[in-house]
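<purpose> Linking amino acid order to shape
<body> The protein record starts here
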Amino acid sequence: DALSERSPMRRADLKVMMELVLEETGRLLDEGDETVLPPLGKLSVKKRVERPGGDMLTIKLKRLTPERAED
């Protein structure tokens, strides 16, 4: 709901877009242990444990402070 209120896109299109973004983020984390997603920050995999239903990841998120994000 928050996205649809801030975007001119239709709710159904936003849902597809978010699914694609999350799918791509998952793929990037599978390929490497670090991914930068501006303006969110840097995601890094700290621990990966194989489980029968899929890997369990412990992820660290490094966020820039607002004054550093503008640099």
